[in-house]
Design brief:
homodimer, globular, 34% helix, 24% strand, six-stranded mixed β-sheet, seven-stranded mixed β-sheet, alpha+beta
């Protein structure tokens, strides 16, 4: 039987079952955002995430700078999702020998800027050639006093998400219309001193072409830019403001529904979501309507959000934080929204008319299993 | 300029210079076999190594079981080369969706057997699809009280290697004649309980085909088998018998000359090698002569030896160990040979007639730079 007939999730389940091990040293093994090792009375976190050309990225839509930045971000997101602080980074890079030297320098510019942003140090790696596609992976360590696992949610806990959902997936749809790389890296907080001939920039004429393409779709640059940014250069969400209250946490990489199902499976609980509470940005509403895509579908199963999904008990500080966030009165910039609550078993979504439907684990799966 | 015009080594040098960092926590950063992090008064080792289809392996020559085993071994070899004990493993696996499920199960059989052999635990990983080639990587941690770096060699130190050199490269040449996978995994110490329909085995008829192919070349199975084994399922060398005396160490993955040059560069010293001392197995002599390949070239620049190359001061316990090894009087099974000594600056090889030639950093480099 081929992997395309089995799908990613059952395969992961088989591997987890076979290699699952919890010992006095391995506090969390396979099956969470990161492993947790008791390392001489401290909690060492370890995670790894890869990006494959043609699957995770398309170099006609993405600059090497953006790629380097995103590779670090997606790994940091896993450490943050355990309530940890990222520390040490290893890289694997496999490229075709016809790759331009300037490409790899720009890639490392992106890696470097992300490392500075998150306070991470590069300590090693491996370089190889490939016959075809580019392949990159990173492994990242972190530390935390109290790891927040997927398995800590209890019935009655409220369910929260950071940011807006679906922005990244909608950004990807917009990119498919723009059909070229977009110079969004020159954001003040994200720049390095200029390097001669660097590819980190992108000039104005390039931007003019994109703006004129967008205007034919009746879209403005300011509307599309935040979505592109969330897709091309996501910034991982640091949970420091609420981590103390989180009972369970996961980062949304494959889509809200699939990742919430994972959290529920590990916690052996159910969930009740309110569709109208799911945070969707004004920009995503606008762009998805122009592109004739259901914004709700993008928000719940689009994938690559890299937002944090977490639970906290009723009456925690989180309720005040989420309220402040809704009223725009929050000091920190991170938006937090309560989207439902943990149930004993039932897994449902309630729509705006109060109608219930099943919460199904829909989202991205490798090996193209039918959904 | 393309990477093929630059080559792997200058590229690595650029990256090392840019990201090199030594702090009170990072004892060894980029540029050794593994990084060393001071982690709450202990030394945490971290390394990563990848294997790309079409570059590092060819699935018409290698079973998935062998591949899984080798991936773990090459990473363990890096931890051993720092004088460490391997601990926790992360895996990245990217495969085509048309891969057979039995293939991935057999791959994990090989991983599992290697994990048991080295006492390693799998704690996480990442799975992806690919459009074409398979790509696998592992990251591995370890620990050691005293890391043995590449940079500790001093003029006057003796230079040692474990095992024989060139067996793996010669095994690969033999494989190119056999032109198919070879069932060598059924070695008593390396088996798991049989799994229904497992691919770990290989039946007798398959072996008969190979034996008959070899006999046409006037070669026997017993002569070729150890070379194939060293190439397909290398066992990493544990330096426990001599690690206390080692002043510098590296594992030979790209070839003796290139890896000795790395050690010399880091230690800022030279080396004098005696060509006649370089350990070449009887089997490799025989097979290389039949295949009309220079055995010396295979031994010094063949690559993928996964033997340890290390230095120790004169009058260390190593001299006795190496002598015992030469006389076949050593209790441990690991062969150790003194092949030369560290000099202040001069880097030369002395041939059997006493003629000197330059020691050149020849060996495998990615991106196909001319040598």
């Amino acid at each position: 039987m081929k992997l395309s007939e089995i799908g990613e999730l059952p395969l992961i389940e088989t591997i987890c079952k076979r290699f699952f091990k919890r010992s006095k040293d391995i506090l969390v093994g396979i099956g969470d955002d990161a492993a947790v090792i008791k390392y001489h009375n401290k909690n060492l976190l370890m995670t790894t995430d890869m990006m494959v050309e043609g699957i995770h990225f398309d170099l006609s839509f993405m600059t090497p700078y953006q790629l380097g930045f995103k590779l670090v971000s997606v790994n940091v997101s896993d450490i943050y999702a355990m309530g940890g602080a990222p520390e040490y980074l290893l890289l694997n890079i496999a490229m075709n020998k016809n790759t331009e030297h300037s490409f790899i320098l720009a890639f490392f510019d992106g890696v470097h800027v992300a490392m500075k942003l998150y306070g991470v140090s590069l300590i090693g790696g491996d370089l190889s050639s490939t016959k075809n596609e580019m392949f990159i992976a990173a492994s990242l360590t972190g530390n935390t006093d109290r790891p927040v696992k997927r398995s800590g949610a209890h019935p009655g806990d409220k369910i929260y998400v950071t940011g807006n959902l679906g922005d990244s997936a909608c950004g990807l749809e917009a990119l498919k219309k723009i059909k070229k790389t977009v110079p969004i890296e020159n954001t003040p907080s994200l720049t390095l001193p200029p390097r001669g001939g660097g590819m980190g920039g992108g000039d104005n004429s390039e931007l003019q072409i994109i703006i004129s393409k967008l205007s034919k779709l009746c879209l403005t640059w300011n509307t599309v830019k935040p979505l592109l940014k969330r897709h091309l250069m996501p910034i991982a969400r640091n949970p420091k403001d609420f981590v103390k209250d989180a009972t369970a946490m996961i980062d949304i990489s494959d889509g809200l529904f699939i990742d919430l199902s994972r959290l529920c499976n590990e916690s052996r609980v159910g969930a009740k979501l309110y569709a109208t509470h799911i945070p969707i940005s004004r920009q995503m509403q606008k762009v998805s309507s122009v592109l004739k895509i259901d914004p709700f579908k993008l928000a719940v199963s689009g994938g690559e959000d890299y937002e944090l999904l977490f639970t906290a008990s009723r009456n925690s500080k989180l309720e005040t934080l989420a309220l402040a966030s809704r009223l725009g009165r929050q000091n920190s910039k991170l938006k937090i929204t309560c989207i439902g609550e943990i149930t004993k078993k039932e897994r449902i979504v309630i729509d705006k008319r109060g109608k219930k439907s099943d919460l199904r684990a829909e989202g991205y799966q490798h090996f193209g299993i039918k959904r």
